[in-house]
Write a structure and sequence with these properties.
One of its GO terms (molecular function) is xanthine dehydrogenase activity. By secondary structure, this protein is of the alpha+beta class. Helix content is about 30%, strand content about 20%. The chain is built from 19 helices and 20 strands.
Length: about 500
C-alpha cells in the first residue's frame, strides 16, 4: 500500500502524504499553493470560474480535460497532471495563444470568470484542431460570464488557432516526456492517505476494491464526485472514508462486442459519448447535455446508476434499450435487468459491500428505433425535469415491441408497463397512441417540486410519446429545435 498521492502540478512533481480526504482541488490551489488565478464562484460545478485542466496519459500521448476544481477532491489527482491559468504563459512571460486571443478579442471585463474560460479554451485547443462555432459553444457551455457577453469569447476561441498551431506550442513539445513521467508514477498499489482519522483509499484493481468494500462496507464510493462534491461544499458533510474508483483501470473500459457494449462503471460521460453516440445517436445527444464538459469529464455512468436519483439521465435510456447491470461483492457477481435495480426512492438492490461493476448496453436490432428526450428549463447544463426514452420496433405497420422508460415521473427511473401493453400488437397510428395515453396515469403518479409540477410532468410525458409517433410513423417530421447540435439520427 502506498501512503502518498503523486501528481504533476504543471511540471513539478508533488507528493502528498497528509491530506483531508475531501479537500477540493480549488482549496488546495488557493489556500496551500497560493495559486489564486483559479476562482470560486458557485462551489457546485455550475459556473466554471474554477475550471482547471487535468492531463491523463493515453499511451505516449496526453489527454487534457477541463474539470471543476470546486468539487474535485485533491487526492483524486494521483497519476495526473494539473494545469491552472498560471501554467500557460511561457518562461519569458509571453502569453499562450489562448490567453492572447482573449486579449485581442476583448473577451474579458471584470475578469473574475476569465481564468475558467481560458482553461476551457485551452482544453479545446489541445484536443481539437479545427472546431466550428457549435463545437466552441459546447466547450464553453460550462462557463458563465455576467458582464462580457459570449460573442467576444467565442471569437477568441476561433482566433487562438491563428496565433499558433496546437502542435507547435510548448505543451505539445513536452507531451511525450510528460506522458513518460506519468507512466513512471503508475503502479498496482492501493493508495491510502488521510488526516484527522479520516481516509481516502484508491485501489488499482477491481479485486482490491471488492476486498476493501467487504472490509469497509460503510465507505463512501466516489467516482467523479459531481454529486458527492456538493455534499461537502454545500451540505458540509464529513465523510470518514472515501473509496475512489478512478485508479481502477478495468472499471473504465468500454468494450464493444457483436451484441453490444460492456461499459465499466467508472467510464466517464466524455469517454462514452463517442461510441454510444454512434450506436445510439439520441443517447449520445442525451449524454452531451449532461452537465457541461467539466462535468462530463468527471461524472461516470456507474455513479449515475448507483446514485439512484429519479432524475438521473442515463437510466431511462439504458432501461429503454434493455441494459443489464453487473454487481460485485467479493468474488461473487450477479447480473440483473437495470430496471430491477431501482426499488424505491433512495433504495436500490445493492447489498453491503456490493458495488456496480459494469453495465451492458445491447445494440439495436434490425428495425429498432430509439429516441430519447430530455426536458429542462435551459437547454444545456441543466438537470432534467423529465426524461423519456423509447425503443420501438414495427412490423407490418403494427407495434411488434416497445420499451418506454421515464425519469422524473416516479421515485425511481421506471418503465411504463401498462402503456407498453396497450400499444404492443396495435397499429402504430396517432389514434392508437392517444388511446394508450390514459395508461400513463396508471403507470406513474408524478410529484410536484421546484423543477416542475405533477400536472406539467404528466402532460409532457404524454406529449413525448406523441412526439415519438410523429418522428417514426412516416416521413421524418421536424420536431427538434432549430439549430440543435444533435448527433442527428437517421
Amino acid at each position: 500500500m502506498r501512503d502518498t498521492v503523486r501528481f504533476l502540478l504543471g511540471d513539478e512533481l508533488r507528493e502528498i502524504r497528509t491530506i483531508d480526504p475531501t479537500q477540493t482541488v480549488l482549496d488546495w490551489l488557493r489556500i496551500e499553493q497560493r495559486l489564486t488565478g483559479t476562482k470560486e464562484g458557485c462551489a457546485e460545478g455550475d459556473c466554471g470560474a474554477c475550471t482547471v485542466v487535468v492531463g491523463r496519459r493515453d499511451g505516449d500521448r496526453m489527454r487534457y480535460e477541463p474539470v471543476n476544481a470546486c468539487i474535485r477532491f485533491t487526492a483524486t489527482l494521483d497519476g495526473c497532471q494539473l494545469l491552472t491559468v498560471e501554467h500557460l504563459k511561457a518562461a519569458d512571460g509571453a502569453l499562450h495563444p489562448v490567453q492572447q486571443a482573449m486579449v485581442d478579442c476583448h473577451g474579458s471585463q471584470c475578469g473574475f470568470c476569465t481564468p475558467g474560460f481560458v482553461m476551457s479554451l485551452f482544453a479545446l485547443y489541445r484536443n481539437d484542431d479545427a472546431p466550428d462555432e457549435g463545437r466552441i459553444d459546447t466547450a464553453l457551455a460550462g462557463n458563465l460570464c455576467r458582464c462580457t457577453g459570449y460573442a467576444p469569447i467565442v471569437a477568441a476561441g476561433q482566433r487562438m488557432y491563428a496565433l499558433g498551431a496546437p502542435a507547435a506550442d510548448r505543451f505539445a513539445a513536452a507531451e511525450a516526456e510528460t506522458a513518460k513521467r506519468l507512466a513512471a508514477l503508475e503502479d498496482e498499489e492501493t493508495v491510502e492517505v488521510g488526516a484527522g482519522g479520516r481516509r481516502f483509499t484508491a485501489p488499482a484493481s477491481t479485486a482490491a476494491m471488492a476486498a476493501l468494500l467487504l472490509e469497509h462496507p460503510e465507505a463512501c464510493i466516489v467516482s467523479g464526485a459531481t454529486d458527492v462534491g456538493l455534499w461537502v461544499t454545500k451540505q458540509q458533510r464529513v465523510l470518514p472514508h472515501i473509496l475512489y474508483t478512478g485508479r481502477v483501470r478495468d472499471l473504465r473500459g468500454i468494450h464493444e462486442t457483436g451484441d453490444g457494449f460492456e461499459i465499466g462503471a467508472a467510464a466517464t460521460y466524455a469517454e462514452l459519448i463517442g461510441p454510444i453516440g454512434r450506436a445510439y445517436p439520441d443517447f449520445g445527444e442525451l449524454i452531451r447535455r449532461i452537465g457541461a464538459e467539466q462535468v462530463r469529464a468527471m461524472g461516470t455512468i456507474g455513479g449515475n446508476i448507483a446514485n439512484g436519483s429519479p432524475i438521473g439521465d442515463t437510466p431511462p435510456a439504458l432501461i429503454a434499450a434493455g441494459a443489464t447491470l453487473t454487481l460485485r461483492r467479493g468474488h461473487a457477481r450477479r447480473t440483473l435487468p437495470l430496471e430491477d435495480f431501482f426499488i424505491a426512492y433512495g433504495k436500490q438492490d445493492r447489498q453491503p459491500g456490493e458495488f456496480v461493476e459494469s453495465v451492458f448496453l445491447p445494440k439495436l436490432r434490425p428495425g429498432d428505433r430509439f429516441r430519447a428526450y430530455k426536458i429542462t428549463k435551459r437547454f444545456d447544463q441543466d438537470i432534467s425535469a423529465l426524461c423519456g426514452a423509447f425503443r420501438l420496433r414495427l412490423k407490418d405497420g403494427k407495434v411488434a415491441d416497445i420499451r418506454i422508460a421515464y425519469g422524473g415521473l416516479a421515485g425511481t427511473p421506471k418503465r411504463a408497463a401498462e402503456t407498453e401493453a396497450a400499444l404492443i400488437g396495435q397499429p402504430w397510428t396517432e389514434a392508437v397512441v392517444r388511446a394508450a395515453l390514459p395508461a400513463l396515469a396508471r403507470d406513474f403518479t408524478p410529484l410536484t417540486d421546484w423543477r416542475a409540477s405533477a400536472g406539467y410532468r404528466a402532460k409532457v410525458a404524454a406529449n413525448l410519446l406523441l412526439k415519438l409517433h410523429a418522428e417514426t410513423a412516416g416521413p421524418a417530421a421536424e420536431t427538434r429545435l432549430v439549430g440543435e447540435r444533435s448527433l442527428a439520427h437517421a
